[in-house]
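Narrative summary of target 7.
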Amino acid sequence: MVWVIRKSDHIHWVSDWLEEILWMPLCRLVLEIDIYITQPRGTTCGNGWAGLSGLVKVYIGRPQFKAVIEKVVRCSIGALAVTVCGGCAVSDLVRAATLKFVDQATIDYSEECFTW
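Modeled conformation, tokenized:
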């Protein structure tokens, strides 16, 4: 899972849910979470779950969507889902990156676009 947020405070929106998932017995076999913070303020560090057995990685800046999707396609077994919910520019970038790999994997694409 890749989640792009503006501020590190936004992690708290899902922190309880995320911690519950990360403690599930087989979680480490099927889940990796990359969180990209595009506008960090102050100290950005993970909570107790960040870095838990390498399942959660926190990055500063916007991801290179093509590289992210390429990595997922390369490591996938079966169909993939690419879901984007964000501004129009981000949706355009993710859609363009996804289209580069539709001949290499079965990809379901879903998009919700909004403006700030």
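Strands lie at 2-5, 33-37, 56-60, 80-86, 107-113.
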